[in-house]
Design goal:
This protein is mostly beta strands. It contains one helix and eight strands. An eight-stranded antiparallel beta barrel has the order 1-2-3-4-5-6-7-8. A hairpin with a 2-residue loop joins strand 6 and strand 7. The protein is globular, with a radius of gyration of 23 Å.
Length: 152
């Protein structure tokens, strides 16, 4: 009986040793650069490509700075959550939202921005990635935007 127990234990250990490890989920750290926007409340929709940006997200936290469409430096930070996400091979996709605060705007953006230097921010985003490079499309208040991201 001891021999049979030893053989079963030995076979079990050998089988576990040759199993490939479970695939790692994609990293949740992204660096953002490049920003293209359009204002949905404008008389004529056009893409503004003059929005230099750098940002980072790590898990549920994000922070970014960019030059807004009015030529002012803007800062945004807060929390984010992927509502849906998945990956297949080297491709990954996510749909989520961000909740935070943004500065750098005045009444030209929203009327109540004249009364406060920091605005509440809610944004919906979708992200598509191949390997480590991706594009993110988002909607924030009256702005639709696209950004390039790098996942590491």
């Amino acid at each position: 009986m001891r021999g049979l127990s030893f053989l079963l234990l030995s076979a079990s250990l050998n089988h576990a040793a040759f199993q490939s490890p479970a695939p790692k989920p994609p990293s949740q750290t992204h660096i953002y650069f490049g920003l293209w926007t359009t204002h949905l409340n404008a008389d004529r929709l056009h893409i503004d490509s003059n929005n230099p940006m750098v940002g980072i997200s790590h898990g549920p936290v994000f922070a970014t700075t960019f030059v807004n469409s009015f030529g002012k430096r803007a800062y945004a930070a807060g929390f984010q959550h992927d509502v849906l996400s998945g990956n297949r091979g080297n491709a990954a996709a996510a749909l989520g939202f961000r909740l935070g605060a943004i500065s750098g705007y005045d009444e030209r953006f929203l009327k109540f921005a004249a009364d406060t230097p920091v605005l509440p921010m809610f944004s919906v985003y979708s992200r598509l990635e191949e390997r480590h490079l991706g594009v993110e499309l988002s909607w924030t208040m009256v702005v639709a935007s696209a950004a390039i991201c790098f996942r590491f």
